[in-house]
Amino acid sequence: MPAQPVFSRLKRVNETEATARAAAVVGPIAQVEQVQGFAGNRTFRLRALSGETFYLKSGATIQAEARACELARSAGVPAPEILAAETTYLICAEVPGSPSSDDAVITEAGRGLRRLHGIRGDDGRWADRLSTPIERLDLLAGIVPDDLVRRLRVALPPFVDTVADAETVLLHSDLHPRHLYAVGNELTGVIDWGDAMYGDPLFDLARFSMAGDAALDAFLSGYGLNGVGLERTLSMYRILWSLMALHAERAAGGDWFAAHVDTITKELS
């Protein structure tokens, strides 16, 4: 089974180290500030003396994120340009623009995701990735109510059996409008690839569906898929995504649990 990243033993880069390591790649740094994000990562925004802005990100899944960005860019998806990638940190160029929920941007992102899903791969772990958070539900004691745990143990294993042999492709795994950057109505970047993995393409669609029906409709229009008949599959994948997120947040020492528990409760109602 895939192991959970051991966030507690990970030595994350501090501000002084970030400045020095970035300077070796992009030149002298004029300003550095830490950016809030997932508890398991540490990210810094760095403005070089040249006026350009870069990001240094450290965490447990950096190498996989860097590789996913390279593969995505090779498929024509505007992932961040990776300038350097070491064992525990990467440095990337800033993506122009800001997060966008514009329909045209979302539709273009759907087209991009379809191209991403043309990258097939199989690390042999899709069924394990889905089963592991169910098997480890005991670790969420005090976070997920006991009655909800019992319902998850009943509802999820039969579903996992039905999708365990799905054709697996490269997934972003955390795609939503906040990760879509645009200038005007032009998509300029898809960011935050730290959860990338190989799996069922419907898992990505389920994650994006959490942005609401209107956003999903625009996304599916670009993706080229009619969502009719997928409701239950997307619902079950939303539960599994939320369960994975709870495990990751707990392992990283975070406390952002309520929204994920609410999603699971809603989907099982």
How big is the Rg? 19 Å
Arithmetic mean pLDDT: 93
Computed structural class: alpha+beta
Tell me the fraction of residues in β-strands, as a range. Answer: 15-25%
The CATH topology of the largest domain comes to Aminoglycoside 3'-phosphotransferase, Chain: A, domain 2
| Gross geometry | globular
Main sheet: strands, sense, barrel: 5 strands, antiparallel
Query: What is the helix fraction of residues, given as a range?
Result: 40-55%
What is the CA-CA span between the terminal residues? 30 Å
Low-pLDDT regions? 1-10
The largest sheet has its strands arranged as: 1-2-3-5-4
Q: How many beta strands in the DSSP annotation?
A: 10
Quick summary:
Pfam families: APH. This protein has 269 residues and is α+β, with helices and mostly antiparallel strands.
Account of the 3D structure:
By secondary structure, the protein is of the alpha+beta class. The chain has two domains: about 5-95, Phosphorylase Kinase, domain 1, CATH 3.30.200; about 100-269, Aminoglycoside 3'-phosphotransferase, Chain: A, domain 2 (Alpha-Beta Complex). The chain is built from nine helices and ten strands. It has helices spanning about 15-25, 60-75, 105-115, 125-135, 145-165, 200-210, 215-225, 230-250, 260-269, and strands spanning about 30-35, 40-50, 55-60, 80-85, 90-95, 100, 170, 180-185, 185-190, 195-200. A hairpin with a 6-residue loop joins strand 1 (about 30-35) and strand 2 (about 40-50). Helix 4 (about 125-135) packs antiparallel against helix 5. The two termini are about 30 Å apart. The model is unreliable at about 1-10 (pLDDT under 50).
